[in-house]
Structures are given as structure tokens and as C-alpha cells.
Amino acid sequence: MTSYINFKSKLSLREAQSQRKGVVFTFGRFSPPTNGHELLIDKVVSIAQSMGFDNMIYASSTFDTGKNPLKHRDKVKFMKSAFKKATISTDTKIKNPFIAMADLVDKGYTDVVMVVGGDRVADFRKNIGRYVNHEDPKKSINLDSFEVMSAGDRDPDAEGVSGMSASKMRAFASEGDFESFSEGLPSGANDRDAKKLFDLVKKGMGIREEIQRFFDSLDLFAINEETLEETANVYLSDDAKHILQLEENTHNKNKPTVIVLSKYDDDEDLSDSVEKIGVACEKLGCSFFPISIDDAYIVDKDMSDTELIIHNYNGEGNKVSIDTTNTIVLPRGGALTSQAGTGLLSTLQDSGAFVTNKISHMELCRNKYATALALERAGIPSPRTALVANEESIDIALKKIGGQFPLVIKTITGAEGIGVSIVDSYASLKSVLQSLWKFDAEVIIQEFFEITHDVRTIVVNGEIVASMKRNKGDKDFRTNKALGNTSEPYILSKKEQRLIKRVAKAVGCYWCGIDHITVNGEHKILEVNGSPGSGAESYQSYFGKNKVVSGQQLINYIMSVVTDRDNWKFSATEIGIIEMITIKGLGKLESKADTGNGTINVLHAENIKEKSGKVTFDTEFGKTLTLDIEDTMKVNIGKGIWDKRYVVAFDVVFGGKTYKDTLFSLSDRDDNEHAVLLGKDFLKICNYSVNVSKKFTLSESTANSEFEKLLTTK
Questions:
Q1: What percent of the chain has a predicted confidence (pLDDT) above 90?
Q2: Could you tell me the domains of the chain?
Q3: Which of 435, 498, 509, 649 has the greatest count of CB atoms below 10 A from its CB?
Q4: How far is CA 541 from CA 381, 459, 544, in A?
Q5: What's the pLDDT at 211?
Q6: CB of 258 within 8 A of CB of 353?
Q7: Could you tell me how far CA 168 lies from the centroid of its own chain?
Q8: pLDDT digits (tens, 9 = 90+) for 326-354
Q9: How many angstroms separate the CA atoms of 600 and 580, rounded?
Q10: What is the model's pLDDT at position 19?
Q11: What is the pTM of this model?
Q12: What is the pLDDT of residue 665?
């Protein structure tokens, strides 16, 4: 199995083989080119210059009114003007990276380096690398070396160059915002080119705007499919109907299953928001299952690598089988009110399903004290907060929040304003606290601000999608809609938007509601809700044409975002610098995470001997193994010395999950404390990030105990 050939292993031979020819390239839609793309292209040019290679930039020739509104000749013309140091391909046949690779081979290149965003390195290295020198001549991409390198990790929330994306640029064009559009262009673009490109993008999206106006004019959930089709036939042009049909055909393929974890009410089967999610899923053509955490359960023996069966999911004895690689899990707040619900969410989270808010994020939002501490650590303005655990802590806590009355008392957990009180004297404070402590309540106190309203903002996938103002009632200081108070759409200022995005990033939620107030011109964050409702009559939207939308329209849009696999994010789980790993034939070993530049795992080996495509080596446990050589690589160990390493594959268990055919290079690690070094590629596949101040944070799951025994046998 050849996953990739390290280009470094070939460089030492380059001078002796003058017939070899190298190139560094990248491929993208560039529709339109942005200053974010400029970073990528600069990286390509820089790497090519350092290696003495050519550079090549391929722009996709695909053209449509969605994500590709620029014709190939127009984007190439602009790119040649903006990126003068880069070689821009004019070939209109290049529609994907595979065709680009074939084109480079046809041009006589023998050594190829592909540069992509950091989050795509492992994917391209695997999906393209496996065809490099493939045993099947019909599938093989014949090269002397191939490598995929990172251009860096783009931060979608950044306000500078690294945060710009073509989708944001298309949105600016759609809204007629030339100023924002021009700010997102590469530095080499002049004003005349910027205006021309702006007009071309708008023109290319013309049919899309026609379709959007059509949908904006309809209440999609008030008409049936037949009526919608008839209306479209009358209203839309033939080109627009064609595009709409193409999108429908594409959208219907591999639609994900959506499940919602919630606690059923005694009098209602589903909450209002869950009902709206179900309606949206029906229109999107996605299977939808509301899971009752009080009734549903999973049996270990039902679990496989990709299939999972949830029994009695609706409390009526029914079960559902899901493909965890194509399932979206939406946890509502009630999902964490019991051990059963937390366990169910944990199992789904570990199974590989896309969970919008992980347990850690939901718990953080649910715990008002933890949220306050997180905001404080991030330097985000919020009311001063203190935990009050007993009578001895009252004075200390009171001093921390300023010692002024009135003040607010909150139970650490609670929603919809429940568990929130206001007291105006020390005697009242002590009395209320004593009453709450009788029921074992955990309590915080916060400084009080006189307000007329607060603002709830909905954030999905790092982007603000809606906001509303919640007015304070005449008889209650709380603003919660659930308490009968009124609400209205609210337009966030740029400053408020920046603050909200900072909060969303700090708490890590994919979908959340963020509440803030404004006092003397200063914005303060009150709390974050990990499962916000949608019961308000209307919201100010920040998608489409930035208009006022209903709760159902808001959920419709959110579900269109969530069900698009391109928007799925799997938050990395934090692990320690040292963790246990189980390797077949070797057993449990301490492993160290490579926090340097190493990409592939390393295993200690001695007396390494190669013969007929196999490698024999001794381990530190006195075992001798003979395995197939999967690959070879050379590593620069300093001072121009290159160490040749054989790569082998093992089945491993790490963090309670099984990973088959995991690659390890063999190296004598006698001078190192740990026999196993975990490379960045493997950690990325496992979705782990490393905290160098921690050790042994992972534990093997009971479900894998039998398989773990199997791995420890020869």
C-alpha cells in the first residue's frame, strides 16, 4: 500500500538525475480570487523557489450560478494580473486535482508537490497519493516523488486576510457591497479590475438571484410540492429552472439523517423548535428522528464501525439504525439532564457522527459559572460573577462583584429565566441563599444592571444568522420570551457582531444563542445557550437579503447549513502529550505526541533488515516481527544526514477506537524515552489536539476490551 512518497527522499538524488523535473502546484475554484487565495499562491511560489521547482496554479473550469459564477477565462485573466509571480494555467479541461496531476505528468514533471489548506493535507495525501505509482497501470500516476504540504490553517472567524473566503465575496457581490468585496481582493488587484470582477460575479450569479427572489416571495412551508413546481414553471426562466433542477438532483444524493436528542415533556411530544427542525428536514428530504433520552438506549453488540442501532428511540418500542458517517446529532438542553442522556450523546459523539455541540460545549453553556469564567479568561466583557458555596463565602463573593445592591442571584444551571432572582439588601441575599441551599442548589451572584432589553443572537458554524431584542416586562426584570415578554428584530452593529463572534469562538459551540446587554455604550455578554429556541415571532436575519424572518424560516436556513457536509466541523478533542496506545502484536505502549513537524508515526525498532519487500526487526520487548514494507522514506536527522526508514502498518486502538492499517516508520529510538511517536497525520485522523501540559487523558472504552485482547495476540 503506497499512501505517498516523501519528496524529501528524492531531493538528494536530484543533482545526479538531471532529467528530473519538479513542480509545486495548487488547485481551486478561485471564484472569485481573494486575499485568502493570495496567501495560498504566495506559499506555492515560495516553496517552488526554495526547491528550485516550477510553480503552477490551476483554476477550476466549472461554471454555474452557485459556487462558480465566474467563467474560466475571466478568472484566469484576473489571476494573471493579480498574481504576477505565479504561473496560471489556461487549460479549460482541469476540473479537479486528479486531472491537474495527469496534466503535470503529461508536461514531463517527475516530482510533484501539492499545496493545500492545513485541514486538507491528510485527505489529499491519502486520496491522490494512493494512485501514485499504483500497481494497476490504468490507475497509476507515475512520479518519482509526490508530497502534499500545508499552506497553513485558515481561520474562518478572522477579520484579516486569513479569514476571507470566496463564499463571503459572493455574498458581498449578491448584496451589492462593493466596498467589502474590494477589501477582500488580492493586493495586486487595481480598482478597475476590482470593479470589473465585481460586475462579473454579480452577472454570473444573476440566475441565482432570480431563484432567490422566487423563494423569498414564497412561504415554502405553506404550500405543497405540486403548487411549488407549478409556480416555479410560471415564474422562473428556463435557465433558472434548469439550474434549480440540477441543484435538486445533486442535493438529493446521500442526504444525511438528522436526530435530535431531547427530553419529552409530559404534555407535549416535542418542543416547538424540535417540531420546526422536523418540518425543515421533511422539506430537505432528510430522515428525521426525535430521540427521547428517557427511553432510548444503545446495546454494545449493535455497534460497528459505521452502523449504530438506537432502541426504543420514541418510547414506543421502535428502533432506528443509523450510518454514523452520515448522521447529524442535534442535542437539546434537556439531553444533559440525566446520566442516560449524557451517555447516549457521548456514544453518538464517539461513533463518528457529526454532533453540532459536543458534551463539553453543552456543559460549558449549561453551567453559568463556568461560562462566566471562560468569558473572563478570554477577556470578553460580562457582568462580574462569583460563586457562593456557603455562608462563609458570601462576603468574599459580594466584594468580588463590587459589593453593590441590587444584585442578581442565579442557580448555576437553569433555562428560560428559571432560577434567577434579584435581591436589594444583604439580609435578602442571605435569606434567598439559605432557601436555595436547602435544596442543594449551586448558586452564583452577579452585578445588576438596569436595562430595558437584552439581545439574543443566533450563531451557526461561526457565522451570525439572526438576532432579536427581548424587551423587559413591566412586572419582571427578566427578558426571557418564555416568561411572556415581547421581542422584535434587532440589527447588530459591527462592534456587536465582532464581540458575538469572539464569544462563539471562545465557547466552541457550532450552534448557540448568545445574550448580551448594552450599558453606557458598553456591550456585556450575559450568557450562552447551547440549544437556543426559535419561538420569537420574528428575527433579523443575516443570510440572503438580510430581512426579517419567522422562527420557521430561521430553522429552515439553519438546517440547510447544518445538512451541508461542507459545513461539518469535528472539533478536535484535547489529549495529553503522553497517552497509551495498543498495537497489534505488541500490546499497550506509552506514546508521545509529535509536536514538531513529524507527520507519520514512528515505532522503535532494532536490527532492521529488508528482504524481498518485507522488513524484519526486533522490538524493545524481545519480539521479532516480519511485516510487509508499505513505503520507504528518508528523514533529515540534521547536518545533512538522511536516515532511510521503512514504513509498516499495524492495527491499533487509541482513545477507545480502532484504526486499521495505521502507518509507522521504523527507527532506533534508544535515545528516546518512548518507543512510539505519534505523527500529526494520525492525530488529525483521530481528531485530537495536543495539550503539552497534560498526560494520560484518554481511557480505553469497555466496548473495545475484547478487541483489545485480540490486538495483544500474535
A1: 35
A2: 8-203 (3.40.50.620), 206-251 (no CATH), 257-355 (3.40.50.20), 384-447 (3.30.1490.20), 453-567 (3.30.470.20), 573-711 (2.40.70.10)
A3: 509
A4: 25, 11, 8
A5: 58
A6: no
A7: 17
A8: 899 999 877 888 888 888 998 898 888 89
A9: 17
A10: 64
A11: 0.53
A12: 92
